[in-house]
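#lab-general

N.A. 3:47 PM
ok so I finally got the sequence cleaned up, no stray characters, all 214 residues accounted for. can someone with queue access submit it? mine expired

B.Y. 3:52 PM
send it over

N.A. 3:53 PM
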Amino acid sequence: MNCIVTAGPTFESLDDVRRLTNFSTGRLGTELANYLTAQGHQVTLLIGESATYPGERQAQSVKVFSTTADLCSRLKALSRRQVDVIFHAAAVSDFGFGHIFVEQAADEFVALKAAKKISTRRGRLLVELVPTPKIIASLRGWFPKTWIVGWKYEADGGRADALRAAKKQLLDCKTDACVANGPAYGKGFSLVLPKSQKHFAQSNQLFAALAKLR
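B.Y. 4:20 PM
back already:
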């Protein structure tokens, strides 16, 4: 198979020296890419530049992304060739920065113009957070004939809530499968398909099942 695996976090810039990101290490996506490579598949790994997992990246092609927009651009570029499966495990930032306001007087804020580095001497800031585009929702349009596997990492609720969110992703984003995990799901993973779901206690068990989807 010709596969794309996304892994690790995106970030969104506040100014030229500060950013908003998340705690994704990129480990799961990197290990999946390594597993698929060892099984003889052609793998392109798209990995966030802020990923902290130090393990070896064995994919035949490794490309580093930064922001959500950058990851979008790289995926669109790869859509020009034949891709059999996309494993979208990257933890895309849910929010980016909108308007920024600086305190001018007590509890009075005015809009701040763009700056390479916002000085702390300006005092308190109010920052608008705006949702970033959901890449998973765009993949079907870019890859109409590709098998698409998404991830649903849920922190709140319980296992049933995580599984409902995974099934909703399948419907909303027209993906073929979804992996549910995170604190809400608990230990292990669930591979959710339109008509079935299966629990895996270990990541290598999940990888073996993912490799057999196509």
